[in-house]
Amino acid sequence: MTAFSAILAVFLHLDVLLPHFFAAYGSGIYVLLFAVIFAETGFIFTPFLPGDSLLFAAGALCASSGLQVGWLWLFLVIAAFLGDALNYRVGAVFGEQLSSHKWVNPTHLAKAHAYFERYGGKAIILGRFLPIIRTFVPFVCGITQMSYRRFMAYNLIGGLLWVTGFVFAGYWFGQLPWVKAHFSGLILGIMVVSFLPMVVDALRWGFNRSGR
């Protein structure tokens, strides 16, 4: 196993390894969690990082350690908010360059812009709860030049709902005996449930096409 693959494996299983990192680095875990949530939402090339399961595990860790759940919640809300804001800006720059190409139909861009102005808020909020999708939604919002104020408002709402829901679910339920005894399986279950809507949509899309 190369050094890169070893580091990648650690990040992919960070939700399960959190107690070990806390034992080794103490309050430095705040920085690590902030960085991972920021990267998972802010960089288009890191959608594979843990999100839902990591937030749940972080909340559970607060209930069993000296971590302050209030501070953790605040840091992660900021990380999620700034991550999406960065992703939007990158998409906006890319969209400006894209619109200057001759092979891009400006009518299609205008239609995409109108769509996200109308439905973008729902996409931003619901996308927060869908792995991979939440990394791409702010990028696409930027490409289509969705109103910045409108995007930032829904970015804040979505980030608050996402972080609050999973962190406090972990904080309140993560220390239940059954949950502690089956924690790894529960984390896996959260990941499966998180991906389930995308699988259902993909299957529905496939059936619709085959029925034509």
Structural class: mainly alpha
Tell me the number of structural domains. Answer: 1
End-to-end C-alpha gap: 47 Å
What letter string, H or E per element, gives the SSE order? Answer: HHHHHHHHHH
Main sheet record: none
- Strands, count: 0
Q: What is the overall shape?
A: elongated
Radius of gyration: 19 Å
Q: How confident overall, as mean pLDDT?
A: 78
Helix content: over 70%
Query: How much strand content do the residues show?
Result: under 5%
Runs with pLDDT <50, length 5+?
none
* Tally of contiguous helical segments: 10
Textual characterization of the structure:
With 212 residues, the protein is mainly α. It has one domain (3-210). Helices cover 81% and strands 0% of the residues. It is built from 10 helices and no strands. The longest helix has 31 residues, at 69-99. It starts with a helix and ends with a helix.
Write the layout of secondary structure elements.
Elements: H1 3-12, H2 14-25, H3 29-42, H4 52-64, H5 69-99, H6 106-127, H7 133-143, H8 148-173, H9 177-181, H10 183-210
Helix pairs in contact: 2-4, 3-5, 4-5, 4-8, 4-10, 5-7, 5-8, 6-7, 6-8
Task: Give a short synopsis of this structure.
By secondary structure, this protein is an all-alpha fold. 81% of the residues lie in helices and 0% in strands.
Features:
212 residues; mainly alpha; 10 helices; 0% strand
